Amino acid sequence: MSGLFVSVMRTGVPLVAGWLLTLAVSAGVEINSATVTGLVTAALALAYYLVFRLLEVLGERAPGTFLQNLAGLFLGWARPPAYPKFEQLEPVDGARYLGGDSTSG
Fold first, then answer.
1. Which of 1, 25, 18 lies closest to 76, judged by CA?
2. Among 14, 19, 28, 31, which is most buried by a count of CB atoms within 10 Å?
3. Residue 70: which of 86, 85, 54 has the closest Cα?
4. Nearest to 80 by CA among 93, 92, 96, 65
5. How far apart are CA 44 and CA 74, in angstroms?
6. CA–CA separation, 55 vs 3, rounded Å?
7. Which residue, among 81, 79, 84, 76, has the nearest Cα to 4 in the 3D structure?
8. H/E element holding 74?
9. How many other C-beta atoms can be found within 10 angstroms of the C-beta atom of residue 25?
10. pTM, entire model
11. Which of these, 98, 102, 77, 84, lies nearest to 14 by C-alpha position?
């Protein structure tokens, strides 16, 4: 359950940051179109996420964890979510299920 919370935080924080950056950019600049405002918000949120995610990846390769933790905080959580590992399931044989039973009907 904590992995879900972390992933939501790491998605929500950049979206809120994009919205706040859009408000800052639009201060003094009149944007009449809701579509343009939405596109600018999405572009700024994506740029925000990309910058801090790249810093986080660089922090993983650098000695220590300061850069990774700092970039992670700007994404809403200091560490990327850790998802449990599950063993890979066998492929489903579709012909077995699609053939049906000739006695039912």
1. 18
2. 14
3. 54
4. 65
5. 14
6. 21
7. 81
8. helix 66-74
9. 13
10. 0.51
11. 77
Q: What are the pLDDT tens digits along the chain (105 aa)? A: 566 677 777 788 888 887 887 777 777 766 667 777 787 888 888 888 888 888 888 888 888 788 888 888 888 877 766 677 888 878 877 777 776 555 554
CB–CB of 70/59 below 8 Å? yes
CA neighbor of 45 nearest in space, from 23, 67, 66, 68: 23
Taking only Cα atoms into account, the Rg of the chain, rounded to an integer number of angstroms, comes to: 22
**Which residues touch 40 (CB under 8 Å, ≥6 apart)?**
22, 25, 26, 31
For residue 1, what are its two tokens?
């359950």
Are residues 13 and 83 in contact, defined by beta-carbon separation less than 8 angstroms? no
Helix (H) or strand (E) holding 47: helix 34-61
